[in-house]
Amino acid sequence: EKHSFKHFMLKEIHEQPGVVRDCLQAYINSNWDLEFEAKTTDELHPATVDINQSPIELGLPDELLENLEQVQIIACGTSWHASLVGKYLLEQLADLPTTVEYASEARYAPSPLRPHTLIIGVTQSGETADTLAALSMEKQRRLNAPTQFKPRLLGITNRTESSLGQLVPHLINTRAGIEIGVAATKTFTAQVIAFYLLAIDLAWRRQTLSQSRVQELVKGLRKLPSQIELILNTQEAKIEDFSHQFSDTKDFIFLGRGINFPIALEGALKLKEISYIHAEGYPAGEMKHGPIALLDKDVPVVAIAMPGSVYEKVISNAQEAKARDAHLIGVTAKETLEESDVFNNILPVPLVDELLSPILAVIPLQLLAYYIAARRGLDVDQPRNLAKSVTVE
Ligand code: F6R
């Protein structure tokens, strides 16, 4: 049921605050922060949780996660983008070298076997043929290998009863509810949340973060649902109006750096698959190595400029684009508006820890893609040539 929404995609975009809330509630020990805040246990109020335990409860066995040396992630499409955010988190929070492979490539060029590797298959449907085949290959070639190469397989999926569930012994259920729109929105957000939880849990186990940094991240995660709501409540009508000017646009460029580079890729994918406008996502610093030649007044550039380690760099890359007459749209935090008078238009999101910003930055990009496509009168939920799950190679 679409209820009052014109398309399932729009309904699913709006479901994201609830999806994030449910997922956090399911996997974060709800009393941990309170106990951590209090830090003491008195006779009258004995602690209900041990703050020396990880606040994250994914129900994964120690044998899967202990003594890891690296992580290898296999996925396609939007799930591959979520995995790139995951790589950033696993490396920066848990100090685990991580590779992210396209399943369709990994199948035919297996990487050298490395010991103590966690292999993660990410597929919302749990039915993507290439992802299943690549995972099954990894499983097979490790079965008869020496102990340190034994398969350690984990799936991240929205459908635990899927073929993925048969193939791998351990799953993180992203609990987003069934997604009908072909363009993934809420399942992407839920996958990224799963990676936050996994990375924090691994950071805890490997002692790569202080307890107070873990607490800060957990607190930040808990604020995300209301921050997504705020974007939806205050920006949707503006983005709908704003998107009208792109009805005849032929090309779009999306720029991001660091943890928001995958969001640039995702913004471009959403736009191309439902609006059929050619769109490319680039790491902003790569523009000068070729793609900047594409820019002129007819190519809008969306720059994701979230305050943090690469903020000034993105702003300066955006300025380079502006010097080529590009129409510049900034996805940025309100607090930095004055500094960013470089943008022709701003899609504001709340100011958060840079590490958590992808979850907010993707929301205006989903709305932008949706309203541009809807304005063109296209079948947003069933774009041409696409299927919800790709069960053939
Ligand atoms: C894009 C999209 C696809 C899927 C891809 C993988 O919006 O939906 O790119 O992400 O086909 O699908 P799953 O996650 O089911 O393996």
UniProtKB/TrEMBL annotation:
It comes from the Bacteria. It is found in: Cytoplasm. The keyword NAD does not apply. Its main location: cytoplasm. Keywords: Aminotransferase, Cytoplasm, Glutamine amidotransferase, Repeat, Transferase. One of its GO terms (cellular component) is cytosol. GO terms for biological process: amino sugar biosynthetic process; carbohydrate metabolic process; fructose 6-phosphate metabolic process; protein N-linked glycosylation; UDP-N-acetylglucosamine metabolic process. The active site is at 388 (for fru-6p isomerization activity). It catalyses: D-fructose 6-phosphate + L-glutamine = D-glucosamine 6-phosphate + L-glutamate. GO terms for molecular function: carbohydrate derivative binding; glutamine-fructose-6-phosphate transaminase (isomerizing) activity. The keyword Repeat applies. Residues 60-208, 242-383 form the SIS domain. Its EC number is 2.6.1.16. Catalyzes the first step in hexosamine metabolism, converting fructose-6P into glucosamine-6P using glutamine as a nitrogen source. Homodimer. This is Glutamine--fructose-6-phosphate aminotransferase [isomerizing].
